[in-house]
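Running log. JK asked me to keep both predictions on one page so they can be read side by side. First protein, sequence followed by its tokens:
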Amino acid sequence: MKSSNYDAILFKQWLIERKNLAESSVYVYFRSIERFLARNPNLEDLDDYNNFLVDVSVKKRCSHYYSAIKAFIEFRIGDAALKARLYKGLIKPKERKDIVRERKHLDENKILEVINYLDSEKHKVVALIQSLTGVRAGDILRLKVGGIVPEVYNKQDVLRLNILGKGKKRNVVYLFDEVAQEIVMDYITSNKNYGEFYFIETGKMNGRQGNLESEDAMLKMNYQWYWADLKQAIQTAGIDKDDFATHDFRRCFGRRVWEKWKDIYKLQKALNHSDPKVTMRYLEQSGLDTADIHYEMQK
């Protein structure tokens, strides 16, 4: 039984209709199977599934590939005996025993110091937006021209950012800070070299001229440049490079939201989570779900 690219599209629709998954998870499963099907596998051959799982197991986070393959077999294989044989023979990734490094929480002044140490003006703007809105770095990088709109809210000038986020999830955020608005608008008006995106360079790769093949490839390369700049900035600010990453702008924003309101619904909305379970997991992993208990007991 051979595969086709159409299988991935049907699989995505099946996930939406049959599985209780967050929108972002549907997107991750879909892209994982797209990658698997690009190999033109024989869908009845266990080795084709396992060879793929072995190849992607070098990644830091690979368990979702296994889960996506299992779901795809459930969707695509009708023969019960074959399905059971494939399930039983799948190579399950080893559980990671490593202790996850705890990221540092930086206050707003230290975050601004890190931003000021960034070398690229574009990266300073991206980091500033991240710190004020909690939006993922990749979502800001793929912000399309026309997606930043000046308007008035409550008799105050604001900038509205129309984000198409992870899993193609719409996310609208606002910049009220007047200094931030000025910095963002100065960047937009002074840079006329961008094409479809405000923050993605499409004309070079590794110093050589030439177009990148896809939006995903362009995003990946520009994210790597941003991350390299940030690593240098945090070291200059006296922070270990393993203690802060691009996603930590979002974590620090989320913590400020929680400290201000202690409201899981507001935190879910602020982080644009589809499922409150994801927000609850964030609180548990950060320890914020018990911070107020300890505060009340010790004050």
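And the second, directly underneath as requested:
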Amino acid sequence: MTKANPRALLSLAALGATALMSAAALRPAIAATSADQARPDDSIAAVRSATARYHDVQVAIADGYVPSDHCVASPAGVMGYHYTKPSLLAQPPDLRRPAMLLYLPTEKGLELGGVEWIQADGDQDPATDADRPSLLGVPFNGPMPGHEPGQPVHYDLHAWVWQHNPAGTFAQFNPAASC
């Protein structure tokens, strides 16, 4: 049996450690830029699971979502009534904790149609978008001026996870809904 050269073993160990550290350092960058590196539970199903209890409007209100009294509509379609959780507006967007719930009027009352995430634009300049967030590999819309007095320039992303939207799951307006 031949004896291994201690210097050669030390060099191989150092090379292996360097390769492992380099791979570990690159992993966050790869995960942040590659859709196939997303966590297995980062999906529309995860959003549905996290928001299923809000089919009952009273549960949403009890959990801190504040109802609006205006059903948002445009020629492009409907967003519905926005129920906003103020404590989530100042936090980074979280897939499982949307800042807004979108309710649509029906014969039976309000029904949960989708969700919306919102993030204030860092420099409050609608002409720049270096801080545009994304979820599920989808970039947010914006930056855009606030829709109500006091609302900052912001980005937003709608997801029609409870009602089909012929314009697309992440379209702002749903042409199949009405106020």
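Observation for JK regarding the second prediction: Residues 6-33 form the longest helix (28 residues).
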